[in-house]
Design goal:
Blueprint lengths: L30 E7 L3 H12 L4 E4 L24 H8 L1 H24 L11 E4 L3 H18 L3 E4 L16 E4 L7 H15 L2 E3 L4 E7 L2 E6 L2 E10 L10 H4 L3 E10 L4 H7 L5 E4 L6 E4 L6 E6 L9 H13 L8 E11 L6 E5 L2 E5 L5 H16 L3 H4 L21 H18 L3
Parallel strand pairs: 1-2, 1-9, 2-6, 3-11, 9-16
Antiparallel strand pairs: 3-5, 4-5, 7-8, 8-9, 10-13, 10-14, 12-13, 15-16
Helix pairs in contact: 1-5, 1-9, 2-3, 3-9
EC number: 1.-.-.-
Organism: Halomonas kalidii
Pfam families: DAO
Length: about 425
């Protein structure tokens, strides 16, 4: 294996500017108004709202806060929903489908306003997103979708024909694409660090490296056992996602952790970046296992991510797959070095929608399906307002029945390699139909 194909570091690129560290040990309160499981985006957002409303609230994280997906993701504020509008309408009815789409617009606006109002230093830039079409037939479908999105929700969204593609991205790999102007990028680790800062300042207590082992009804409240001791809580909110463990067996049977991997290039020359990413947009593509990619916030590197079918350790093959995909889209990067390659878990469920739901008195805010930068803060805040009985601020199209359980599944995603291979086959068929 040629040395240049191995990334120099296996930690997230984002940790250079916002390293994830454990918090100092905090005294354990014996009684709380609200106990939150998880101190990622959702848990901290909920804790911030609850603490500012005067509740005694603490969040417990099995790792250092932010060590999971909150500091490992691509930092793209897509808020995408996996099922398209037609699928949502078929499953849930047109009214529900419209409400789900409309809430995406609200959630992104909320995030951008939150960053500005709280003065969060997280390198946020509203760049827009270009999504590439694999073939001309797919381009026609995507173009109609962009037009419909603009008409339904007033989002600036439009088609980019193949002849104009290089104004947005320096590749001939696609056959045109679409642009959405309401999507941008940020440094996810800095965003989490800033969210943690304001949450702690509001009065939220955060216990890092403190495992929640059980949650049980105890009279009108709950008895929560942690690795640091037992706590009585009037209400419990579970905000775990791709790192859900045995503390909530019910949730664990409904969320599948899926590895997602990202690579980062070495610094590229300014003229190379200007050719390949002339508008410094976020990027996606129309494949089941398509890559998402973007410039680094300083505009000097390209970061590219995608699904990782491995389950144990840190093998080289997924990094090489992503590197091959990078070079296929940008052939002039054939000899580029990789500075970083890392992975983290996203959580998928059977209908691929985020969710707020209640089970046996415990409230859950979870299931972000790879779009947690937008959905986790929004869903966490909605859940907090529901706990406080504020129906207007708690209203969400994602507050409905729990995700369906997955038969023969208890937390070990043994079937994921086969699922990934199935998606890969669909992509090969799509490429063949597009005469690629």
């Amino acid at each position: 294996m040629h040395e240049r194909r191995i990334a120099e570091q296996s930690t997230p690129f984002w940790w250079k500017l916002a390293p994830v560290t454990p918090l100092p040990q905090q005294p354990l309160a014996k009684k709380l108004d609200v106990l939150i499981v998880g101190a990622g985006y959702a848990g901290l957002s909920a804790g911030l709202a609850l603490a500012r409303a005067g509740r005694s609230v603490a969040a417990f994280d099995a790792m250092s806060p932010g060590e999971g997906a909150s500091s490992r993701n691509g930092g793209i504020t897509s808020g995408s929903i996996r099922p398209d509008y037609a699928t949502l309408s078929h499953r849930f009815g047109e009214q529900k489908a419209m409400a789900i789409e409309a809430e995406g617009k609200l959630a992104r606006a909320f995030l951008y306003d939150f960053i500005e109002t709280e003065r969060l230093d997280c390198d946020f830039q509203l760049t827009g997103l270009f999504k590439g079409a694999i073939g001309y037939e797919q381009y026609d479908t995507m173009a109609r979708g962009a037009e419909a999105l603009a008409k339904r929700l007033g989002i600036e969204s439009y088609a980019v024909p193949h002849a104009e593609q290089r104004n947005y991205i320096g590749t001939d790999f696609y056959r045109g694409g679409t642009v959405r102007r309401d999507i941008g990028g940020l440094n996810p680790a800095k965003f989490h660090a800033e969210l943690l800062r304001v949450a702690l300042a509001s009065g939220l207590t955060v216990h890092s490296n403190t495992l929640v082992t059980s949650i049980a009804r105890d009279g009108p409240g709950f008895r929560v056992v942690t690795s640091a001791g037992t706590v009585q809580a009037r209400q419990v909110l579970v905000c775990t996602n791709g790192y859900t463990d045995g503390a909530s067996p019910y949730l664990r049977r409904r969320l599948v952790p899926v590895r997602s991997r990202i690579i980062a290039t070495e610094e590229l020359a300014p003229d190379v970046m200007a050719r390949l990413m002339p508008k410094l947009m976020m990027m996606g593509e129309g494949l089941q296992l398509g890559f998402y990619y973007r410039p680094s916030p300083d505009g000097r590197r390209i970061l590219l991510g995608g699904r990782d079918s491995s389950r144990l350790g840190d093998p080289a093959a997924p990094t090489l797959r992503l590197r091959k995909g990078l070079v296929k889209r940008f052939p002039e990067l054939e000899n580029v070095r990789l500075s970083h390659s890392w992975f983290g878990n996203v959580a998928m469920n059977r209908d691929m929608l985020p969710r707020i739901f209640e089970k046996n008195g415990v409230l859950f805010a979870t299931g972000f399906c790879g779009s947690g930068v937008v959905w986790a803060p929004w869903i966490g805040m909605r859940a907090a307002h529901r706990l406080m009985g504020e129906s207007t601020h708690a209203r969400s199209a994602f507050d409905f029945r729990p995700p369906a359980f997955i038969p023969f599944y208890r937390g070990n995603p043994w079937f994921m390699p086969a699922v990934i291979q199935g998606y890969a086959l669909q992509d090969r068929i799509a490429m063949w139909r597009a005469k690629r």
